[in-house]
């Protein structure tokens, strides 16, 4: 429910919907790369002018919207920002309140070793660890669900030591991918997918066999 999200954030970040409004958090799993992105690029290669992943997600969610012709469906993407440069929604908070993935933050560590350093939090999924992404929020403004019960996310990094290790790896060594394997995972990115996401965005077109930005 939108109210679960708004309840844990400052008013500046609130979503402008009644508390009982139904919302879905959309995640992409490791297999998205082969099952969705590559076929999409192959089919749409002449139309890709921005970011292939963003366009692929948008393409598939437009089909979801079509499945509900009688409903108003609002979609907010993870990359969208407001005029004040703030994100339109805080993806990790949304995933946490929806019970999709646990958002580990500095406040989850009792004996904080970081002093004055800025420490960012990170979501971990019980099945995919850090090998997933939060892509969008689907909102159904006309559907109110006052009786929907909130499910807590699975706390899969439950020890103090592991949480410290996770936040250390994410904040200071994120490029080596190690934080994503903080727990035993069922599936991870392929080497090809890792290479794609490790490549600067402007050079990714080449990896996908595209000629670059504006085709």
TrEMBL record:
Main location: cytoplasm
Keywords for the protein's UniProt record, in alphabetical order: Cobalamin, Cobalt, Cytoplasm, FAD, Flavoprotein, FMN, NADP, Oxidoreductase
Any GO BP annotation: cobalamin metabolic process
A GO term, aspect molecular function: cobalamin binding
Reaction catalyzed: apo-[alkylcobalamin reductase] + adenosylcob(III)alamin + glutathione = S-adenosylglutathione + cob(I)alamin-[alkylcobalamin reductase] + H(+); apo-[alkylcobalamin reductase] + methylcob(III)alamin + glutathione = S-methyl glutathione + cob(I)alamin-[alkylcobalamin reductase] + H(+); apo-[alkylcobalamin reductase] + an R-cob(III)alamin + glutathione = cob(I)alamin-[alkylcobalamin reductase] + an S-substituted glutathione + H(+); 2 cob(II)alamin-[cyanocobalamin reductase] + 2 hydrogen cyanide + NADP(+) = 2 cyanocob(III)alamin + 2 apo-[cyanocobalamin reductase] + NADPH + H(+)
Origin: domain of life: Eukaryota
Pfam families on file: MMACHC
UniProt xrefs under InterPro entries: MMACHC
Annotated EC: 1.16.1.6, 2.5.1.151
Entry's localization field: Cytoplasm
One cellular component (GO) term of this entry: cytoplasm
Cofactor (UniProt): FAD; FMN
CDD domains: MMACHC-like
Similarity comment text for this entry: Belongs to the MMACHC family.
Protein name: Cyanocobalamin reductase / alkylcobalamin dealkylase
Annotated source species: Crypturellus soui
Protein encoded by which gene: Mmachc
């Amino acid at each position: 429910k939108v109210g679960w999200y708004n309840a844990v954030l400052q008013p500046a970040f609130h979503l402008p919907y009644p508390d009982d409004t139904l919302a879905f958090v959309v995640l992409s799993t490791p297999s998205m790369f082969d099952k969705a992105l590559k076929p999409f690029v192959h089919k749409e290669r002449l139309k890709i002018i921005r970011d292939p992943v963003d366009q692929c997600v948008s393409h598939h969610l437009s089909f979801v919207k079509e499945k509900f012709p009688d409903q108003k469906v609002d979609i907010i993407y993870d990359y969208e920002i407001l005029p004040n440069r703030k994100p339109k929604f805080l993806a990790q908070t949304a995933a946490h309140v929806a019970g999709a993935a646990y958002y580990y933050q500095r406040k989850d560590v009792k004996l904080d070793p970081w002093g004055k350093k800025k420490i960012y939090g990170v979501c971990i999924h019980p099945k995919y660890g850090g090998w997933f992404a939060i892509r969008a929020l689907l909102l159904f403004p006309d559907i109110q669900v006052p009786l929907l019960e909130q499910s807590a996310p699975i706390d899969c990094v439950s020890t103090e030591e592991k949480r410290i290790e996770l936040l250390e790896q994410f904040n200071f060594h994120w490029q080596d991918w190690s934080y994503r394997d903080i727990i035993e995972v069922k599936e991870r990115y392929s080497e090809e997918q890792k290479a794609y996401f490790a490549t600067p965005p402007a050079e990714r077109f080449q990896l996908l066999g595209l000629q670059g930005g504006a085709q």
